[in-house]
Amino acid sequence: MKKNVLVIGSGGREHALVLKISQSNSVEKIFCLPGNPGTSKICTNLKIDSSNHQSIYEFCLAEKIDLVVIGPEQPLVDGLSDFLRERKINVFGPSKAAAQIEASKSFAKQIMMQANVQTAQYVEFNREQFKNAIDFLKNSKYPLVIKADGLAAGKGVTICENFEQATETLNNIFVENVFGSSGEKIVIEEFLVGDEASVFAITDGKDFITLPPAQDHKRVGDNDTGKNTGGMGAYAPTPLIDEKLISKIEQEIISPVINQLNQNGIPFIGCLYAGLMITNVGPKVIEFNCRFGDPETQVVLPLLEGDFLELLYSAAIGSLNKNAVRYNGGSSVCVVAASKGYPDLYKKGFEIMGLEISDPEILIYHAGTIEKDGKIFTNGGRVLGVTSVIKENDVLKAREKAYEALSKICFDGIYYRSDIANRVNKYLQKSNL
Ligand code: AMP
Ligand code: GLY
Question: Ligand 1 test: best mutation among 118, 232, 286, most atoms within 8 Å of CB?
Fold first, then answer.
């Protein structure tokens, strides 16, 4: 039976989801709420208010939607999947309770402790324990990491080099209240040394499969300098994680966490994103997210052959088809074209030129764009994900292609990192030794 699908979200991740779903044999109609100028070319964008759960439900009934795929964390944390599931709509995306794995660092740590999963050592303090937290910081070794417990738009983590910086961070969270209720509690944790990777597990709450491992580039500047962002580029598969390591991650991290959540009566149905630090004593969890990562999704999905919609649908109905997709042997690199000033203030409204690239190995995902009178303008911090996808597993070749495509695209104030995927050189050298 062909399926009608509704994807919630408006970023590069959702463009990638819609594109991949559109290539499925089992798809009939696709809608995206609200979508962006990229998704509008391959599906129908909707203007429904995404916080109005009842309106979304009524749309699902009217259009006979077989599956809702929720992209961002906020609607999940707001309980959209619970609302729809209670009304018998199939949803790919965890319940509000299971989404706490991203929305509360303290909850995530508790699950990891129960499941005996490797992560940074930590302590927790709440607002009333301000003085105890200061005492703890006085006697700590540096660097250490302070995290606001709740969602903080990617700004809730501070790596503190010394006591002064740590007390200032504590003050910002507990006294200045910069994160509002997300800062009621903090987690102070050990600073982990190593290389980061993102692993996505697609799960029906019991079984799971992992997708090709990716590496994000979170800092705004070359060589991982400057502020943290939503992600300035990604590539997959990363040679940092070989087959042996992915099995270890599956057995020692993904499986125990999925089982633990299930045992606790809060099965996780959707994409469990493990943000990992590969340390010299093995992989450790930095964080979990309750959704696909962005920009990683833009490089991971094009590397799947098979029926991606079947994968998501089978997870949503609680009987995961583990053979629905498989890695196609290729590689992919995404470089984010951002607006100058991002992640701080930036200007919008500049026309984007050069989007008409007709190379089958190049995908231009839209994120912060807007269409007016047939022209595309910038409308956000991360504007485009310029992505190459090649048949060979040769990330360096894919990297060349992505940068070549990017050189043809321009808008006022275009900014991008010039070193996306460079770290592959280091991993390849190591594996040749
Ligand atoms: P998060 O918002 O939890 O993804 O953290 C943002 C970034 O902070 C991560 O991608 C890491 O680069 C860094 N980070 C977070 N926790 C740690 C840690 N315990 N040790 C080292 N770096 C960390
Ligand atoms: N790429 C990081 C994130 O999606 O949170």
Answer: 286
Tens digits of pLDDT across the chain (433 residues): 899 999 999 999 999 999 999 999 999 999 999 999 999 999 999 999 989 999 999 999 999 999 999 999 999 999 999 999 999 999 999 999 999 999 999 999 999 999 999 999 999 999 999 999 999 999 999 999 999 999 988 789 999 999 999 999 999 999 999 999 999 999 999 999 999 999 999 999 999 999 999 999 999 999 999 998 999 999 999 999 999 999 999 999 999 999 999 999 999 999 999 999 999 999 999 999 999 999 999 999 999 999 999 999 999 999 999 999 999 999 999 999 999 999 999 999 999 999 999 999 999 999 999 999 999 999 999 999 999 999 999 999 999 999 999 999 999 999 999 999 999 999 988 776 6
C-alpha span between 345 and 409 (Å, rounded): 22
Ligand 1 centroid to 286 CA: how many Å? 6
Cβ(274)–Cβ(199) under 8 Å? yes
Ligand 1 neighbours by CB, cut-off 6 Å:
120, 145, 154, 157, 159, 189-192, 196, 218, 228, 275, 286-287
Q: Tell me the ligand closest to 154's alpha carbon.
A: 1
Q: Distance, CA 231 to ligand 1 centroid (Å)?
A: 13
CATH code 3.30.1490.20 for 121-190: yes
What's the gap in Å between 73 CA and the centre of ligand 2?
10
Distance from residue 216's CA to the centre of ligand 2 (Å): 8
Q: Which CATH topology does 3-92 take?
A: Rossmann fold (3.40.50)
List the helix and strand counts (H, then E) for the chain.
14, 25
d(CA 360, CA 73): 31
Could you tell me the distance, in angstroms and rounded to a whole number, from the CA of residue 230 to the centre of ligand 2?
6
Q: Is the pTM of this model over 0.90?
A: yes
Select from 240, 165, 156, 163 the least CA-distant residue to 198. Answer: 240
Domains of the chain by residue range: 3-92, 121-190, 195-432
Cα–Cα distance, 97 to 119 (Å, whole number): 21
Name the closest ligand to CA 367: 2
195-432 under CATH 3.30.470.20, yes or no:
yes
- Report the candidate in 86, 118, 63 with the shortest Cα–Cα distance to residue 251: 118
CB-defined site of ligand 2, < 6 Å: 216, 231, 289, 293-294, 296
